[in-house]
Design a protein that fits this description.
77 residues; mainly alpha; 0% strand; elongated
């Protein structure tokens, strides 16, 4: 891998992890909102935000899986 390819791979990894952080931040925000709705007895809203947590976590897992596959493709045995 030449320096240009290496730089591109690093930039791509940084972008992927920044997206991962954003998804995890969103999941945490929905989890906090879920707690608030449970505390006020708004069960339907709590459930909706709880599902949003899972959606963000699923997206985060996909991003992490893609990062792992990229790493595997560039690693040397």
């Amino acid at each position: 891998m030449d320096n240009s390819e290496r730089s591109e791979a690093i930039s791509s990894a940084i972008a992927r992890y920044e997206a991962l952080i954003a998804e995890l931040d969103s999941a945490m925000a929905h989890a906090r909102t879920t707690i608030g709705h449970f505390q006020t007895g708004e069960l339907a809203r709590a459930g909706a935000h709880g599902l949003a947590v899972e959606g963000h976590m699923a997206t985060a897992r996909k991003l992490l899986d893609a990062a792992a596959m990229d790493w595997a493709e560039h690693s040397q045995a």
